[in-house]
Amino acid sequence: MKTFLIADTHFGHSNILTFKSHLKTGLLREGFNNINHHDEILIQNWNSVVSKNDKVYHLGDIGFRNFSSLSKILEQLNGIKVLIKGNHDNFKLSQYAQYFKDVRAYHILDKFILSHIPIHDMSLSRWKANIHGHLHELSVPDKRYYCVSVEQHNYTPVDFEYIRSIYKND
């Protein structure tokens, strides 16, 4: 069993395809014909690395639309899923509980703190790092933060062992 992390999939959020990059380099998510194409690619990428018994921590902003549409996507995603709620995860807990083993505000994993929004730097002293989402293509200029937003990882979940290897000597 492997552990993966991902954030900001924004399934069903058609406006995500028109958002401009904060870095002024163009659109935030280029190369998608429409939101259905976007969602299909993210599902394929997810399932290409995550097996049925792997664990996936989704660090927020999983999807938009109505929950019925989102549930059809969640049914297709491999793995045992845990949701760390993001600022756009506004459905009822009972709805998320159908597809996620747990739903949390944050989670501690092997001395890493997982959150959607990066935590304040004064709160980091007892953690190896803060693995987070929310920033999309941006990064906090501090090695104690690691962003798993899809834009930074080819729209694919990141293996936790890879992240651990980065902080191995810390």
Protein topology:
Blueprint: E1 3-6, H1 35-49, E2 55-58, H2 67-74, E3 80-84, H3 93-96, E4 102-104, E5 107-109, E6 112-114, E7 129-132, E8 145-147, E9 158-159, H4 160-166
Parallel strand pairs: 1-2, 2-3, 3-4, 6-7, 7-8
Antiparallel strand pairs: 1-9, 5-6
Structure description:
- This protein has 170 residues and is of the alpha/beta class.
- The protein has one domain: Purple Acid Phosphatase, chain A, domain 2 (4-Layer Sandwich).
- 20% of the residues lie in helices and 18% in strands.
- It has helices at 35-49, 67-74, 93-96, 160-166; strands at 3-6, 55-58, 80-84, 102-104, 107-109, 112-114, 129-132, 145-147, 158-159.
- It has a 5-stranded mixed beta sheet with strand order 4-3-2-1-9. Strands 5-6-7-8 form a 4-stranded mixed beta sheet, with no helix packed on it.
- Helix 1 (35-49) links the parallel strand 1 (3-6) and strand 2 (55-58).
Q: Quick gist of this model?
A:
This protein is α/β, with parallel strands linked by helices and 170 residues long. The protein contains four helices and nine strands.
- Kindly report the oligomeric state of this protein: single chain
- The CATH H-level superfamily is Metallo-dependent phosphatases
Into which percentage range does the β-strand content fall?
A: 15-25%
Q: Please state the CA-atom Rg, rounded to the nearest Å.
A: 15 Å
Number of strands: 9
For the record, give the distance between the C-alpha atoms at the N and C termini, rounded to a whole number: 25 Å
Count of helical regions: 4
The low-confidence parts are none
- Main sheet: strand order: 4-3-2-1-9
Helix and strand element order: EHEHEHEEEEEEH
